[in-house]
Amino acid sequence: MLGRSPSAHYYDAPQRHIAIDKLVTRMDPDGQQEKKYYRVRPARWYGGIVTADCSGCGLLCKFCWVKDEVMANPATSGRFYTPKRIAGELLAIAKKRRLSQIRVSGGEPTIGKKHMLQLLHHLQGYGLNFILETNGIPIAADVGFAKDLSAFRDFMHVRVSLKGCDEEEFSVLTGARPEDFKLQLKALESLLDAKVGCHPSVMSSFSTQDSFNALIRRLKDIDPKLSQNAEVEELILYPHVVKRLKKYGLAYYVGHEPDQVPADQI
Ligand code: SF4
Fold first, then answer.
1. % of the chain with per-residue pLDDT over 90
2. Over the stretch 108-158, which tens digit does the pLDDT of each residue have?
3. Residue 195: inside a domain, yes or no?
4. Do the domain assignments include residue 46?
5. 66 lines ligand 1 (CB under 6 A)
6. 165 with 212: CB under 8 angstroms?
7. Which residue range forms the structural domain that includes residue 44?
8. What is the DSSP string of 168-208?
9. What is the model's pTM?
10. Which of 14, 158, 215, 244 could staple 198 via S-S, CB 3.0–4.6 A?
11. Partners of 13 in the beta sheet?
12. Angle formed at CA 38 by CA 37 and CA 44, multiple of 5 degrees
């Protein structure tokens, strides 16, 4: 179903993450790395999870649920938070809503590595679970990242969201270089090596069963745990997503209305 234009120009995914980092992070005088967030909220996913939505991602997934204005303008979306301040807001909502899970979403949480590590430090010791949702690119591109995250493995689990099932699908869905797909797999390998709890989720709405099966075999070759724990992620048809898919002429096999997402994907 997916077809690549021979004239397409792909971007370098690690480099684009670095460029976005410069737009959405800054250092404060105390050595804290501030990062931009545009929303903090309780969300229905994972059975209930407090979520801080950060601005900016180094990929440009055509199916991304983030609104166009935030995707296109991370530098002007949201406002800067110190790690301590965003941790405080997350903990306050968790207490008020009696939720025990926390995540950062809405963009790529691992942009601003220092901020992420400082945020985890401020969240450690409260008996909560932190789910790090990432596309994996910054973790793969930085040899020390997975090891640094391992300091928080007592309360953190990493979900690496794979954009399609192979290099071809990845490049069509994100516009990034096909070879950068391997970085997503490399992130999983690095996390396993650092003994950080992790699993892959797979955006499979644009994939044939054959390509999905081939990915499962690749994951199994890395570690059978990855293939056993692979999670299926399917398209949610928010109006702005439908509009974007039409603009790109991107067809899908499976998609769900926002109020009809299968229970096992919430
Ligand atoms: S990696 Fe996630 S946040 Fe970034 S563009 Fe893709 S779906 Fe959106």
1. 91
2. 999 999 999 999 999 999 999 999 999 999 999 999 999 999 999 999 999
3. yes
4. yes
5. yes
6. yes
7. 13-250
8. HHHHHHH-B-GGGHHHHHHHHHHHHHTT--EEEEEE-TT--
9. 0.94
10. 158
11. none
12. 100
The domain spanning residue 53 has which CATH number? 3.20.20.70
**Among residues 136, 231, 124, which one has the least CA distance to residue 192?**
136
Q: Which tokens hold the place of 116?
A: 């992420």
65 three-class SS? coil
Determine the distance separating the centroid of ligand 1 and the alpha carbon of 29, expressed in angstroms. 31
**Ligand 1 mutation target, pool 59, 62, 204, most atoms within 8 A of CB:** 59
Atom 8, ligand 1: which residue's CA is nearest? 64
User: Is 200 inside any structural domain?
Assistant: yes
Residue 224 lies inside a defined structural domain of this protein: yes
Q: How many domains does the chain have?
A: 1
pLDDT digits (tens, 9 = 90+) for 58-110: 999 999 999 999 999 999 999 999 999 999 999 999 999 999 999 999 899 99
